[in-house]
Amino acid sequence: MRSQLQRRLTYGANVAVALVLAGVLVVMANWLANKYPFRHDFVQTSDMYRLADKTKSVLRELPTNVHFYVFSNPQDSELYGKLERLLRAYGDVSRRVSFTMVDSIRDIAKLRALVRELSVDAPDTVVVVYDDQKKVLTEMDMADFRFDHDYNTGGQIKKMRLFKGEQAFTSALLELMHPVKLTTRFTVKHGEKSIMANGADGLSEARRFLDRDNLESAPLELVTLQALTPSNCNVLIVAGPTKPFLDAEVNLLRRYLLDGGRALILLDPELKSGLEEMLAEFNVRVGNNVVVDPERRLPYASPLQLIAGLYGDHPITRRLQTFTMFFLARSVSVRDPKNSVNVADDLIMTGDKGWGEIKTDGDTFRFDEGEDLAGPVSVGVTVENKKSGMRLVVIGDSDFITNREIVQGGNRDLFLNTVNWLLKREFLVAIGTKTVVEMKRLELDKLQLTIVTVTVIGVIPALALVAGLAVWLTRRR
């Protein structure tokens, strides 16, 4: 009797300890999952909801709570489910992010109250509330659509082509976190490319991308200024001048940089800008050549179209995982690598077989030793003076940020990363749009479908039955 009681107590204690250990394991697993969350999209064939490093950096910098209100109809809108999953990913990165999905069909009472409170006047709208500020995002801010003809009704079928939710959300957060926009000023009156032009050679798309990052863009006439300071011009951009700057303007730029200014200067080959000698004072050598790299060349493309894929170890290019394309580029290199005041680094380089061609008037190009600049050739340089705070980037091409070229390869990322580095916002990197793809579908033939059916309905239950019988027989013995 006593031994039987001891046996029961032992079994009971073992069960209790096992239950406690199981509970501890569950708690530890949940704690680890909460502290180190990991998401993977098993539905889409692309990384639709994998957040960019830029977004994660912004979310980790949030000083206060932010709430997203999504107004949409899940039955009619492609956006509803995508926005919900995207916001869950935002919430996994920062506990300061919360959201409310408002079904415009089922949540009528909640919808009416929030519509009055937040001044929502359109369906498929997201309102971002940050402290006492708010930002309203429309359907077109969050997606690009394709409209196909419906031959049955004669109307149109709207199909989502690009999902821009992450772009829109992160840009809204940046705007709300920094209500005073920083300024980027583009010089004019020297034949530069215009931020107001919508044509192929204009910079209207570059201006739009800057605005998306909460950066204000405006033209600037240097000749009208008595002084140019970092306080009234956060970043100065010179985009491909075709006529030389006046001496007074060059002196103005020189003083601006000496006072700790920040500038992006894009100089095309075979053109004198009047800035070359001034840039030499800041440890930058601008070559009088055209850069050629036969190892990286598109089929049937001109050898003057440079494709660069080698980058320096710099915050601008550290996360740049693709090629950048330059239609016509000149060499830009470090003048004195040992200069400890204006510290310069090569940013973009050709391969070993690239070179800087001096003879630019011919149709064919070949390397002439002793005359041409031997590779690898740099086409971009960064300069930083840590004492004054000056930052400077010089690139030997301006076409790569035009409306025609900025969408090619990593051109847009290079441009935006450069501007953000000049502003000392290194934590920002570009966010790309996500292409909407179809869900993965498993196509099975008749035999495969039969095998799956027999396995699920017959084999698996039979194995469970056999295992149960084996346990019963063992206990009988």
Compose a concise summary of this entry:
By secondary structure, the protein is an alpha+beta fold. It has 11 helices and 22 strands.
How is this structure best described in words?
The protein folds into two domains: about 55-175, Glutaredoxin (3-Layer(aba) Sandwich); about 180-420, 3-Layer(aba) Sandwich (Rossmann fold), CATH 3.40.50.880. Helices cover about 30% and strands about 20% of the residues. The protein is built from eleven helices and 22 strands. The protein has helices at about 1-35, 55-60, 80-95, 110-120, 140, 165-175, 205-210, 245-260, 275-280, 410-420, 445-475, and strands at about 65-70, 95-105, 125-130, 135, 145-150, 155-165, 180-185, 215-220, 235-240, 260-265, 285, 290, 305-310, 310, 325, 330-335, 345-350, 355, 375, 380-385, 390-395, 435. A hairpin with a 6-residue loop joins β5 and β6. α2 packs parallel to α6. The longest helix has about 35 residues, at about 1-35. The radius of gyration is 30 Å and the shape is elongated. The model has no long low-confidence stretch (mean pLDDT about 85).
